[in-house]
Amino acid sequence: MKLCMVAIITGDIIDSTEIHFDNREHTFAQFNEGFEIIKEKFKIKYEWYRGDAFQVKTDLISSGLRIALMIKFWIKSFEKEAKKTHDVRLSLGIGTIEIDKKELLMSDGEAFRISGRNLDGLKFSKQSFIIDTVDSNSNALKMESVLLNALIENITTTQSKVLFYKLKGCKEDEIAKILGLAQSTINQHSNAGNWNTISKYLDYFEKIYFNE
Fold first, then answer.
1. Confidence class of residue 84 from pLDDT cuts 50, 70 and 90?
2. d(C-alpha 119, C-alpha 104), whole Å
3. How many CB atoms within 10 Å of residue 117?
4. Which is nearest to 9 in space by CA: 91, 69, 124?
5. Is 76 in contact with 160 (CB distance < 8 Å)?
6. Contact in structure between 107 and 6 (CB atoms under 8 Å)
7. β-bridge partners, 91
8. Are strands 4-13 and 129-133 parallel, antiparallel or unpaired?
């Protein structure tokens, strides 16, 4: 029997213990809202565990990077109490799924193991985003994710919001209405957030896994 290939995103909120107890429920409800928006656009399954960690599964591998970046930008679009942006470690793993259960935590396969193992590695690294796969693209994707990480690490909350909606497929005039900003301002934040470079890399990734 041929095993199915999937994309698994494993992540955890960076410095989640810094979120004040009184704000935790509201903050994580905001985070979860982003997952629901993504779920409306893409066919995903997701689960939170340990309170501040999660896994996401998509059968459409070509959408895996877009979904991961949407999660990254959504969470970075919220400020902490200290006026710093929230952030998340993300590990995107592409591989087979051998045990496919209703609950992601009960499922298993190469994609789960790669994603989880690389997330553990990020905890001892300055990098907060990594892509890996069981196929021949592994080394290239891991190196490219280092460069992608550098592009997105220091974007602002507003840039994150703009990029989130751009990844969702919204046009700049639509984003302007959603965020209550001028379209010219949306364009400025888009450029400052390196959207042109990010979108080119997305096109490259999606072409690699177009038929998967």
1. confident
2. 16
3. 13
4. 91
5. yes
6. no
7. 10, 130
8. unpaired
Half-sphere exposure at residue 194, Cβ-oriented, CA atoms within 13 angstroms: 16
**pLDDT classification of 117: cutoffs 50, 70, 90:** very high
State the amino acid at position 168 in one-letter form.
Answer: K
What distance in Å separates the CA atoms of residue 163 and residue 186, rounded to the nearest whole number?
10
What pTM does this model have?
0.95
d(CA 34, CA 180): 19
Place of tokens 């196929």: 135
Closest by Cα among 19, 17, 13 to 34: 13
Print the SS3 string covering the chain. Answer: CCCEEEEEEEEEECCHHHCCHHHHHHHHHHHHHHHHHHHHHCCCEEEEECCCEEEEEECCHHHHHHHHHHHHHHHHCCECCCCCECCEEEEEEEEEECECCCCHHHCECHHHHHHHHHHHHHCCCCCCEEEEECCCCHHHHHHHHHHHHHHHCCCCHHHHHHHHHHHHCCCHHHHHHHHCCCHHHHHHHHHHCCHHHHHHHHHHHHHHCCCC
CA atoms of 104 and 66, how far apart (whole Å): 20
Q: Tokens representing 176?
A: 């302007």
Q: 168-209 pLDDT, tens per residue?
A: 999 999 999 999 999 999 999 999 999 999 999 999 999 999
Alpha-carbon separation of residue 12 from 48, 50, 85, 92, 168 (angstroms): 9, 9, 15, 12, 22
Label residue 165 exposed, middle or buried (CB < 10 Å: 0-12, 13-18, 19+): buried
